[in-house]
């Protein structure tokens, strides 16, 4: 047996308005939460960049120390060891800085879940209106 809805047009429009208001409010809450998450992600990325910069400074110090030792001792193995250590630290610094800058790209910071949710909501509203 099929049931009919005996609500008036005014009640239906009121329900629609209330539902849309609630939907918009929830979407704004989702956007705020996702934005907060993206800010945290940005702070972690900035930490990685800072750590990379500190390691790069350490690499520079070690490389400079290696150069001093190499000049002072003219080819003694400790200078070569310092050079190897400096290069390893430099590679680690590069990797950290590269990762941090990639994490800060605009595509990684966009609120993708909110945008998808808004697209779905718009589609549902479009279907209900038609």
Describe the structure.
- The protein has one domain.
- The protein has four helices and no strands.
- The protein has helices at 9-73, 77-103, 106-109, 112-129.
- Helix 1 packs antiparallel against helix 2 (77-103).
- The chain is rod-shaped, with a radius of gyration of 29 Å.
- The relative contact order is 0.12.
Summarize the structure.
With 130 residues, this protein is mainly alpha-helical. Helices cover 88% and strands 0% of the residues.
Going by helix content, strand content and strand pairing, the class is mainly alpha
Could you report the average pLDDT, rounded to the nearest whole number? 82
Shape: rod-shaped
Total beta strands: 0
Helix and strand element order: HHHH
Q: How many helices?
A: 4
Biggest beta-sheet profile: none
Q: Flag low-confidence runs.
A: none
The structural domain count equals 1
Question: Hey, roughly how much beta strand do the residues contain?
Answer: under 5%
Radius of gyration: 29 Å
State the helicity in percent bands. Answer: over 70%
Separation, N- and C-terminal Cα atoms: 26 Å
List the helices and strands and how they pair.
Blueprint: H1 9-73, H2 77-103, H3 106-109, H4 112-129
Helix pairs in contact: 1-2, 1-4
């Amino acid at each position: 047996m099929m049931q009919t809805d005996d609500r008036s047009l005014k009640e239906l429009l009121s329900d629609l308005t209330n539902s849309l208001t609630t939907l918009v409010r929830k979407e704004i809450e989702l956007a705020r939460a996702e934005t907060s998450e993206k800010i945290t992600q940005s702070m972690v990325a900035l930490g990685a960049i800072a750590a990379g910069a500190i390691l790069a400074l350490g690499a520079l110090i070690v490389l400079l120390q290696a150069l001093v030792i190499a000049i002072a001792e003219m080819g003694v193995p400790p200078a070569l060891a310092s050079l190897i250590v400096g290069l390893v630290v430099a590679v680690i610094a590069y990797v950290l800085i590269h990762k941090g800058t990639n994490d800060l790209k605009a595509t990684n910071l966009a609120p993708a879940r909110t945008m998808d949710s808004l697209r779905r909501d718009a589609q549902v509203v479009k279907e209900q209106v038609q």
